[in-house]
Amino acid sequence: xxxxxxxxxxxxxxxxxxxxxxxxxxxxxxxxxxxxxxxxxxxxxxxxxxxxxxxxxxxxxxxxxxxxxxxxxxxxxxxxxxxxxxxxxxxxxxxxxxxxxxxxxxxxxxxxxxxxxxxxxxxxxxxxxxxxxxxxxxxxxxxxxxxxxxxxxxxxxxxxxxxxxxxxxxxxxxxxxxxxxxxxxxxxxxxxxxxxxxxxxxxxxxxxxxxxxxxxxxxxxxxxxxxxxxxxxxxxxxxxxxxxxxxxxxxxxxxxxxxxxxxxxxxxxxxxxxxxxxxxxxxxxxxxxxxxxxxxxxxxxxxxxxxxxxxxxxxxxxxxxxxxxxxxxxxxxxxxxxxxxxxxx
Length: 345
What we know:
CATH architecture of the domain at 91-150 and 220-338: Orthogonal Bundle
Mean pLDDT: 84
Strand content: under 5%
CATH class of the domain at 91-150 and 220-338: Mainly Alpha
CATH superfamily of the domain at 91-150 and 220-338: MetI-like
Order of helices and strands: HHHEEHHHHHHHHHH
Strand order of the largest sheet: 1-2
Largest sheet: 2 strands, antiparallel
Helix content: over 70%
Distance between the termini: 6 Å
Number of helices: 13
Structural class: mainly alpha
Radius of gyration: 24 Å
């Protein structure tokens, strides 16, 4: 099957996935004991006004009719109104998603940059001190709660230096609003790092980068640990394969054997972990965004859930489903590139 046909088929499969997700989530929002009209009703309303609320929003109709009305609006780009953001859900996603995308992209970049070389070195030097240190590093990454790690990063690299009059890294936020460095920077992409570069404002660019470092490192550590462990185990398996022994017997240098033959094959299972980690991060890094006051999807989704903002929860869930399906598609395409034996069926 051609790559183009495979991509089209997978994109078409996105339709039933999204329908299934929307049905399940919508049904949960209409579960017994939950009245969606309560969001619009106040104590001062008369009975007539309350009935008008039910009629206006269709809450007096059967659940399947309410779902079909919501689905018709969603197909037209109207996902409802988010009381939490005081915006339409579509507008809220456009406003919050760039911040989460920027944070998670930098986070997964950190994870890949550190974890894959660390996994390779750990496998090559099995059971020596470097390997033991990397295994401890990975074990800590899957054991330490992310909220504790985020707070420790803030304390060590932001709060403590400030007590000595040193500004090492910002404590929280996406940029420093006191310096007004982003004043006049046009929001072309709404990614502060890119927009500041497009505007030629290097001071604003470094300000955006400095605000990214701590939350990105805190967010990436768990993914970094998992990728390191998967890469190490994959490398150990590949290094013991017959074709690696054959390559060595032919007189190829160890560096060439590892780089050309071992790493590429070891990356195949690692690619899945990277893709799924990235998809999970994009869906909303709730704890990290909350602790670092990062104005992204995670913070918005938490506030929406706490305030019973049904339209926002539905919109966020649909976006998460789209992200996961698209990331899985990219992973499958990467599989075909890394291993030509894999067929796109």
